[in-house]
Specification:
Length: 333
């Protein structure tokens, strides 16, 4: 076990060129934590926002990038039960996944099912925790209902398509190109709308026989806020997880009232370990079996060695990716 770890930090705020791979002391697992030899870490849009200086790590979290990882348990902190050195696990961290070594709260660690590669496992936690929490818990999507996902080929979108289909919902997505629409339908979406060519409100209304979707998962915000309310089905729920076109808009909320609609919004990173642990248990029960059976699988857009982290971020900045971008460490192929 080396005493140091490679770790990715940013020198200032800006483009991918501000990212640096530096050497740091290997972290020590505290009570209830696992020391992980990291094999894979997913790249997420919030990492890009952190690099740009718009999403600082929560108080107490390190400046090392990375919100999700998969790896091998190397040592146990005090009081940890149920895990042993050598176990393959995946999980969420407040920060620190872009590194050779990281610590992970055992309560949030999920065993990696056989048949999943480390690259796939490292691409799971951030989007699966987010989608489970926002679509299935907060917005309470039910089998037989219709879900509209904006950003259908994002890491979040590709996860939401597969989970909603596997649980018996109809899925409509919006995406910004014909290629992305085709990828979304290949993953299981029933309908895909190229929002650059087609008005998504009119199209989704027609696809739902005039009723509108029961749940809308939105990461766009701005002008979409009013349009989502306009489109939503009676008793529908809108789950807001980001504002890529801005968090400010003048809204007429009367249609939301008339439809008895719900607007919910949340962010995952700053939530306490106890809440993430509850989500980990729900995922273990409801989603790990789907992963183990191969019914759900994170689509991997591309992988990069840790040393090429700037290229991985440039790929995300370019916006052409479909599914997840993953960093690989420790010789993982
Ligand atoms: N609240 C939470 O807890 C939470 C947790 C994780 C992620 N998120 C948010 O969820 C979003 C997706 O994250 P990710 O890691 O999956 O990112 P990602 O793979 O980079 O996906 C971003 C998607 O947004 C679409 N998009 C980008 N700019 C847009 C614009 N101006 N208008 C409409 N669509 C636009 C892109 O699709 P097109 O090319 O089709 O436009 C792309 O598919 C991010 O905004 C992230 O911050 C929130």
């Amino acid at each position: 076990m080396t005493e140091t770890t490679r770790a990715v930090i940013a020198e200032g705020a800006g483009g991918p060129e501000v990212l640096r791979v530096v050497s740091r002391p290997r972290p020590e697992p505290g009570p209830g934590q696992l020391l992980i030899e990291v094999r894979a870490a997913g790249v997420n849009r919030p990492d890009v926002m952190q690099r740009q200086g718009n999403y600082p790590p929560p108080p107490g979290a390190s400046e090392v990038f990375g919100l999700e990882l998969a790896g091998v348990v190397a040592a146990l902190g005090e009081g940890v039960e149920g895990f042993a050195p050598g176990d393959r696990v995946m999980g969420l961290v407040h920060s620190g996944a872009y590194a050779d070594w990281a610590v992970l709260d055992a309560a949030i660690a999920i065993p990696v099912p056989e048949g999943l590669s480390m690259a796939e496992a490292g691409a799971i936690p951030e989007t699966f925790f987010t989608v489970w929490s926002n679509v299935f818990e907060r917005a309470a999507l039910q089998p037989g209902e219709t879900l509209l996902i904006h950003g259908g080929t994002s890491g979040i979108g590709t996860t939401a398509i597969q989970l909603a289909r596997a649980r018996g919902s109809t899925v409509i997505v919006t995406a910004g190109s014909a290629e992305k629409c085709a990828a979304a339908t290949k993953l299981g979406a029933d309908h895909a709308i190229n929002y650059r060519e087609t008005d998504f409100v009119a199209a989704a209304r027609e696809m739902t026989g005039g009723t509108g979707p029961d749940v809308i998962l939105d990461m766009v915000g701005g002008p979409y806020l009013q349009r989502n309310i306009e489109l939503l089905a009676p008793d529908g729920r809108i789950s807001q997880i980001a504002f890529q076109q801005g968090s400010k808009a003048e809204l007429d909320l009367l249609p939301l009232l008339m439809k008895r609609g719900t607007l919910t919004a949340s962010t995952l990173r700053a939530r306490p370990v106890s809440m993430k642990a509850k989500l980990a248990r729900a995922l273990t029960e409801n989603v790990v079996p789907l992963l183990a059976e191969g019914r759900v699988k994170p689509p991997i857009d591309s992988t990069y060695p840790l040393a090429e982290v700037a290229a991985a971020h440039a790929r995300m900045d370019g916006g052409q990716h479909i599914g997840k971008i993953v960093l690989l460490m420790n010789g993982e192929a």
